[in-house]
Amino acid sequence: MQTQVQKELIENAIERAKLFGMLNYLPDGNLTHTPFSLSPYSISNSELNEMIDLTTHFSELMINVSQNWDFLEEHLKPIAKNDHFIRILLDLRKKEVTQNKQLLIQRNDFFLVNDEQINCNKKNHKEFEDSSESILRQVEINTVSVSFPFLITQLARLHKYFYEQNKLKAIIKNNPIKHVVDAFANALEEYNAKSSIILLIAQSKENNLFDQIGLEQLLWDYHKIKTVRKSLSEIYEICKLKDGHLILDGEIVAITYYRAGYSPNDFIENEAIKGRQLIEASSTIQVPNLSIQLAGMKKIQQLLTKPEIISKFVSPEISKLILKTFVKFHTLDDIINTPGGNVSASEWVSINPHEYVLKPQREGGGNNFFGKEITNILSTIQKSNFNTYVLMEKINAKTHPATLVVDGKAENLSCISEVGRYGICTAENGKVINNNDIGYLVRTKSKNVDEGGVSAGFACLNSLTIN
Ligand code: ADP
Ligand code: MG
């Protein structure tokens, strides 16, 4: 039961969320507030600092991986035989370099785990036995269409208003949108063309629209930069190439920012593929470019958990810091050493499905298989298609109580929280120029929910506080 004071707080918070543009479309077309938590997630200073340090290391790793096309092709080409989306992406590659500058906007997602899993990791990775453990376990790094920089900044304002005014909690400062907007402004200046614009590549139906138009608004407010939203198919219809530039209605597109193009649904029409080809042929700064997008694939994540592979891309010191945060990965045809002898990973996971997450090469939420779903889907996957999936050990995150507010209703639940750190990295021909951590995203959800999306209604936006 909620007290009168709690009820008023919840009602006020919902109104303030609307005031700040924290809005989402429901499937029926109605508007509601973005789901949010009223219980900031509490972590220690050292946990926070470890996460912040890791951001720049992971950005460097992604830039370096993206520069090695042979590596990406070696491991993704076999998958492309069975996965038409990967084939579409690989076929987009152009041999000639049309743009030397790279702008990476990434978010690296973690869970914080309990002591049991820390010890388990030490047992699995002999190389960590004598080193300090980490409480962080990476879920994945997102290198394309990194969402929520606007809405999470608005939530930090909302939390600060309520908690700091009542001297309850100090919310850890969070303003990633400002850094994203400034990074775009710098890149636009570097592109060095008079009166150029940003092209935001959008899905035709977008539930998370307000996160995107919030960004567009601030680009105009802070820097007088114009953004145009178009789908890939529309781009094919209305854009053209002139002297290497991508031109839209007579204006030069300095930056193409992908909030679409990460899902096969964005390439159903042939015109969409042609739209992307047009972009690839131009000198626009793509956020991200094709190889940075591919470096964020789940197959690449699985490979980078191997010490001999990650060490090709970053120093031994950085490898060690990153490896500490990885759980075990397998391919479905791996042989696993179990107490009962050697078995194939596919057999092992069908007996122990609750210990794993099965992931295809997809982004955007709702594509992974958990628990019983794994057993069901495995019986339908042909062995020749095994390589399109990776099998990831399930992370058991620490639980905590939280009040979650979804579509006007509040509920007190036992929850888990996924913390993402946003990073921006600029590079030229793969040489890192600027590399920074720029803030965080927290998504809190009931501990019984497996998937994680906020727009999909699984999770609630949240802030951090120090315990
Ligand atoms: P996507 O690229 O579709 O967002 P993710 O790898 O981020 O896919 O997984 C989606 C969600 O599933 C995550 O936000 C997280 O809540 C959950 N999840 C993914 N991997 C694991 C894991 N190994 N253990 C527990 N939960 C996971
Ligand atoms: Mg992702």
Explain what the structure shows.
There is one protein chain. This protein has 467 residues and is of the alpha+beta class. It has one domain (4-166, 174-327, 395-466). It is 37% helix and 28% strand. The strands form six sheets. Strands 3, 5, 6, 19, 20, 21 and 22 form a seven-stranded antiparallel β-sheet that branches. Strands 7, 8, 9, 10, 11 and 12 form a six-stranded mixed β-sheet that branches. Helix 3 (69-80) runs antiparallel to helix 4 (84-91) and helix 9 packs across helix 10 (270-281). The longest helix is centred in the N-terminal third of the chain and has 22 residues, at 45-66. The mean pLDDT is 94. The site of magnesium ion (MG) has 3 residues, from strand 6.
Percent helix range: 25-40%
Q: Which structural class best describes the helix and strand composition?
A: alpha+beta
Return residue spans where pLDDT drops below 50 for at least 5 consecutive residues.
Answer: none
Distance between the termini: 27 Å
Radius of gyration: 22 Å
The best one-word shape is: globular
The number of strands is 23
Please give the oligomerization state of what you see. single chain
Question: Largest beta sheet, briefly?
Answer: 7 strands, antiparallel
- Cofactors, ions and other ligands in the entry: adenosine-5'-diphosphate, magnesium ion
Provide the residue-averaged pLDDT: 94
Helix count, per DSSP? Answer: 16
Domain count, please report it.
1
Percentage beta strand: 25-35%
